[in-house]
Amino acid sequence: xxxGGLSKAHKRAxxxxxxxxxxxxxxxxxxxxxxxxxxxxxxxxxxxxxxLTDVGGVRVGHFTHSSRPTGCTAILFxxxxxxxxxxxxxxxxAAESLGVMLQPMSAVxxxxxxxxxxxSAMAIGATAGMVRFLEEKRIGYDWGTPNIRxxxxxxxxxxxxxxxxxxxxxxxDDAYRACVSAxxxxxxEGSVGAGAGATxxxxxxxxxxxxxxxxxxxxxxRHGDVxxxxxxxVNCAGDVIDWRQGTIVAGARSADGRGFARTVDVLRxxxxxxxxxxxxxxxxxxxxxxxxxxxxxxALTKTQLTKIAIVANTGAARAINPYQxxxxxxxxxxxxxxxxxxxxxxxxxxxIAAEVLSDAIVRAVRTAxxxxxxxxxxxx
Length: 380
Hints:
Distance between the termini: 29 Å
Helix content: 10-25%
Number of helices: 7
Shape: globular
CATH superfamily: L-amino peptidase D-ALA esterase/amidase
Radius of gyration: 20 Å
CATH class: Alpha Beta
Largest sheet: 6 strands, mixed
Number of domains: 1
Strand content: 15-25%
CATH topology: L-amino peptidase D-ALA esterase/amidase
CATH architecture: 4-Layer Sandwich
């Protein structure tokens, strides 16, 4: 069952200048009247489904840029300042740093932080800010050299360059601020941090079928003493599905804006009717990515966590359709704080993780806030 009571509204929502957005997006003026902006006064009371921080010892902080919708999300650890982690990099174009450390054959089995970022591959250097934060606190591997600790920070990046002025990206100082803000409080969801510029349903934008706003979502479940939680940044090419109801929640809009285009139906028609004259689908690598983090308190090895990440990824396939397209660089990271020494079935943990991740994906779009050209679920 899900944890928590009512979710907290966006406590650190960022106000954006209407002029900034319209100046940075050609042709956006026509959409401005119908396209809501992020606001410090807006809230969206979606009941809580729990949080990644329900796993004791996990802290999360966001930095959201004030000049355009982009940002980063920092995940840090209290228990020995480290966590054991594994990963599933099944996407077509995963933009990441130090992910090789998560391979089961790597001798490094504990990491000290995770940084999720907007800004595409050009923002990957922002991880230096988390490294600096951890090094200042003497967190990291003892390298055998006096006064030197080496933190292992895993970076994961999504492409939000089409929202606002793509030349504005997060850097090391922004990542440092996200680390400073990290707490064990319930994670703020929606258009914040790495999800500030996230969008969904964008395969057919060039054909007049607009996408919608994505964002950050989180959920958790407790079964006995075992806690399993997910945090996800949804920036997918496909539609987002309420997997419990089988209905589209957010995704590609029909050309008249009155409903959903139903991405898979459009692709099916394209195969049958050869749509070259109408223009190609936006089937270009690197333009979309869903970043997910699974956390548990159950003690697991890196190899076991790799399996959890793989199974959890099936949950993303339930909630995103189509999933892992040529556009998507999807990544699932799985970690444990290791505080609960108990024998737990990997099959059971993986099945629960998949459901929790599915729920977090739906929450990401339901709590998102629209920007010019990209409406949100709350605007429908």
